[in-house]
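Feature request, filed as a ticket because there's no other form

It would be nice if the structure record came with a short human-readable summary line next to the tokens. Right now we just get the raw output. Example of a typical job, pasted below so the devs can see what we mean:
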Amino acid sequence: METAKRTDLPDLLEHLGYSIRRVGSRYHTTREMDSIRIKDRRTWKRYSNGTGGDAITFLQEFCGKDFREAVNYLLEFNGHRARDSPTPHPRPAQAKEKAAFALPIAHADQRRVFAYLQKRGIAPQVIRGFIEAGLLYEDSLHHNCVFVGREASGKPVFASKRGTYDLNGSGFKGDAVGSDKNVAFRLPCDPALDWVAVFEAPIDLMSFCTLHRQVRSNAVALCGLYQGPLDTYLRENSHLKRIVLCLDADGPGREATEKFQAEYAEKGYTVSARAPAQGKDWNECLQLVMAGSATALAADDTGQSASYYPISVEEYTYGDFDELRINKTYQLSLSDDPSLIPTEDFVRNGRRYYLLDMTRKDEVGVDIQTHTETITQASDTNNLETILQRLDAEMEVTTEDGYVGILRLDHTSVQVTTDGYATKTSTLTASRSYPNLSEADTSLIPKSIEDKGKTLTLGDVKWSESMDVDGEGNPVTRYTATASYTGTTSSRYATGYTVSASYTGEVSKANCAVVTYTAIFGSEKAPEESKAPDGDEQHDSDSGQTEAPDTAKEPVDLSGLKRPVMIGVVVLALAGGGVFAFKKFKERR
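Raw output as currently delivered:
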């Protein structure tokens, strides 16, 4: 275990294909992720998200390995290096080789990704739009969110994996092997717009799309604070003149904002910064807005609940006369009051819409909970490294109340207790030789001796004799005694060990706790005197906005939470006839 923990990190990262550079006398960093600092070649910290640790945690964080896989990899890595190369660096030709990129295998559905991102506050329309544009899906092995980065032609070249089990703490994050870090994650570029918005993480970008509907293209998520993805985006889209930095509001984010502003302004770009109005990043801002908006919106004269906004809005024609209709779909729990669903008339695009009917459908929903399962098993050793290699990295579980899921080993929870002790007695023996004795007399032999701290007693004596002469030349007989001594010693030993370990993750169960309501609105031409648009008309009118996101007067539009964040059931947004740019991106694949 110590061998794995004490792995030379710059050496390891070069072996993995990173470009290492020294920072001062004690620190190193990488060209690909300059928010990482490696201290004294043994520990690392990533200031963009506060994670850090040793070589084991690095492989878990960035290479998608579980604890056991990481330890085994490092043991092999160190053993190979010690055997074959006296230098700390791997073979240069091998270090330059880049692993082939392949997307993780997709799961049959997107339930866990959808549930996870909704818990993070992301609007269902935004999630659906990213999925249908080929920018997001759920992997089949660990049910991670996979954010797909596509180059200008639409070919996938990058994948950032985000665990869906991190709502109660830091969860898994890592890039797929062979990912092009200079592309990272981005939305397609609209040639009619001269700006690009820059975020640290894909979830921050999705949060911004939920809060601000005007961002449907022209955005890059760096997946950290490495500038390569932004440089690539600017190089591929030479018409871009403005950069809007929407980085985190924490220390590393602010430092990067200042650094980027200076560097890109010097290159001739107009650079502005837009920090989240509250919280350390855009997702935290979104969740705070969602949590705090209910009270504010409840005071609205409509009296509607702030949580009752549609998951989709469909506009279509009906009947022989092509009557314009709108269906608004809401998902409520059984405890919610459907009478709070907005049913008032509204004016949109010169037509007054009024309620025709309300339908109800019980849906099979999925309830997701965090679950911990503790197992115990017998062991013949208390060596932690051996025990960890014997434990399974994951376990499937079905709880008593019908929840199922895959749990992952929490290696920090592993404990070893001793079952009991027993005593064993061993016989000790020693021999001593006593030469040149005048007689074969046992009284001349010591009755006990000290041997290795133990007292042994005389057991047997064997004699041998030899002839010699004295000083006068007379023959004399000399005797040699070989004495055997015996004794006993007692020692305690463990009769066995019991290992306990906890597996933690999310479990889910299908139930009928979701009810889908569809409000069907018919329409007629609005009276001429009706000039004050309601919320829905305003929703359409601002959808054609082409200004950069830093031109908005308010950082967060709370009123948008009453209405669909983006209209459409097939694509992320269909507003005023303008199709969300994600769809263009999907068509190029």
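Something like this underneath would help us a lot:
The chain is about 25% helix and 35% strand.
Residues 80-96, 293-307, 530-545, 551-584 have pLDDT under 50 and may be disordered.
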